[in-house]
Amino acid sequence: MLASTPFFGLDADVLVSALVGAATVVGTILTLRHYRQVMRYARRVGRTTENATELQETTRQLRTLAAWVSEYAQRPCGEEEFNPVTRARHRLCALAAESGLIAPELHSVVGCLDRWLATALPPADTTPGDDPEKHRASLVGAMRQEDARGEVERSVTLAQTRIRTLSRAH
Length: 170
Hints:
The structure is a single chain. The chain is mostly helical. The protein has a single domain, classed as Four Helix Bundle (Hemerythrin (Met), subunit A), CATH 1.20.120. The chain is built from four helices and no strands. Helix 1 runs antiparallel to helix 2 (83-98) and helix 3 runs antiparallel to helix 4 (132-169). The longest helix is centred in the first third of the chain and has 60 residues, at 12-71. The relative contact order is 0.11.
């Protein structure tokens, strides 16, 4: 009886086929939408994980640098004493080139490090009758070095603050 009853002029077989086809299309559309949402979520989680790893490495490098910078506080240094800081500068420069999140802050830290490393004092002459002008020039150089060191500390603190802000946002 169902096969012989027309519905809008259609046989039941045609009607059932049309409804199954429509249900299949709707099911396919809903599946594709769900798949897109899942893939979007997976990409977001992947980016967050990559960013977190990058931020952890950068945080570790900045902590090491901050420890060295505080170690050199109020202590005039020559070029040979700056070797560990120079290596840290090169690592930070590489991180800044790879990083997209905090590259400006890292470039600022590297610039401050360059200015600080440029203030390395020449080897001191330890002659008993030092010239007062040489002594004065040495003191001025030491003060410039300390000022540049303070600048590095501030830029490291700003970069660490930015990293904390980004870590909370992710």
